[in-house]
Structure prediction request, 665 residues.
Amino acid sequence: MATQVDISSNGTGRVASPSFWSGVWQNHAPGYLFLLPWLIGFLGLTIGPILTSLYLSFTDFDLLTAPDWVGTDNYVRMFTNDPKFAASMRVTFVFVIFSVPLKLAFALGVALLLNRGMKGLPLYRALFYLPSLLGASVAIAILWRQIFAGNGLVNQFLANFGIQGPSWISNPNYSLWTLIILAIWQFGSPMIIFLAGLRQIPQDMYEAASLDGAGKWRQFWKITLPMLTPVVFFNAIIQTIEAFKSFTPSFIISAGTGGPINSTLFYTLNLYNEAFGFFRMGYASALAWVLLAIVALFTAFSFLTSKYWVHYDD
Amino acid sequence: MATSIQLRQIKKAYGDVQVIHGVDLTIEPGDFTVFVGPSGCGKSTLLRMIAGLEPITGGDLLIDGQRMNEVPAAKRGIAMVFQSYALYPHMSVYQNLAFGLETAKMPKAEIESRVQRAAEILKIEPLLKRKPKQLSGGQRQRVAIGRAIVREPKIFLFDEPLSNLDAELRVAMRVEIAKLHNDLGNTMIYVTHDQVEAMTMADKIVVLRAGVIEQAGAPLELYNNPRNLFVAGFIGSPKMNFLTATVEGATLKTGGVGLDLGREIAGATTLGIRPEHITIAEGSGVKFAEVTVDLVENLGGQTVVYATTKDGQGLTIVLEGQRSVDLGTKVSAYVDPAKAHLFDAQGMAIR
Prediction:
């Protein structure tokens, strides 16, 4: 439909050359009009800020004066002269490395239990999913602070056995772990996806295996897990990205400091403090781009290794 | 020595719904038995109860005289080929075949020789390194059978194994399974809804309907002497013709014509005649109907005529060879009275 044939008065047809674009416009105008609100949003609110932040990452910018071009200084400083950056990297990697596998294992375990065909399954599914809906919220983070505080629920419970628990959230040895437990507690969404994946495994696969003499344990390792690897892969990618981006819990529980002694200084919290605490917008933009690069590298690495351990059916 | 199977008053219920109503059946050692029936008749359920995949609600299952009701599937000495093949998609063909043997902790060398032997029998040696998704339907079917063979079971169970294959392949695999049975000599039970498969493969056919055995016997026994209307209609293709009839003395009135039975038979309400037993040439049997030809199918080897009797009953006639029959013509239908089947009002055969 890109070319229009114009039958002029003298009867000879000719291809309307003036413009390809007017042809497109004439043919697709309503479509583009309907697209416009989204297009404005996409260009103005997504692409624009992304490109701006890329530019800002090479500048010194405090919101009040115009950005100064500083070349790669921000990036150089990050890797050579910023102990907070190093601390936040360490905290974030520990968080990702422990919270993601533990959360996935827990989610898979619960999904396996729910998949045994129990009564009231929809109710349990909803209840288990609930923390995932609430988990990233401020209220839950505050609740978590109460639970793990020096005189919080956990320690009151431990006191029943004569154990004097530490103040979990104000002790740098434990504070990150309370956040990891909070993350694991939000196992709902990977669990729902695991549950759907388990439903996809044909029952006769298990019947064939049981005729072959395989018990439940062997069935799980030899059939369930390999056949679930596409779902494991998906969940691992999504949860890892989520974990790298995690912000609210550490912000609330440490009251925005990342303390005690930077022990809960998540990457994004550090970024937030740089941007809105110290108004170092250029440096914060550079931090954001480095995080993007880390997540992209991790995802690429996952995809590259996936062909060795992810089994696709067809 | 092959294995015998006995079912004694086998019942199956899901909650209040009873699906198998007390089945009694003896399967002789080395027999190829086919369970056949329409969908929902309980044939697969019965097979799965023998396999140990479904708990048995009532009655006894004996394998070689031993009660097996509570014995787990893996310990019954059976192997099963599933309709979906149930191959493990993430394992190679070799691993699929070896899985059961590895589970049994068999020595590696023994596993290898068994897999090799099964692969030779089924001609799948070049496929051993492939994954199931790289195989055609027929090849997957062979692997599924191979997985049963390697375990050297006493009994083979097949649950509609050919229904996912195209027609040509189905015939080829049918022949191969029959050959496999001859070579191995094991007791085999085969479930199908296809009566042609049943007729061609079985030593013994068990016709099931709604959880009850309608008739069990050799294929020709079922063909020649169906016990009731259901079996008569189920075995044979095209289906047996059923004409409503009335009896007056020794004369059976149907299709607008009186058929002399030569003896007095009371209570017959249905006349059953197989399409291949009807002729339209005078002098071969007795005339039993005058019909109008509606449709003619020339299959080359035979000609199928669809016609209607005077009183509006449909009749299918299979004639040998290539015959030219004009549409709309009136012809007379003849049958050898010895090949006519009579059924009473309850649908039971009168002999």
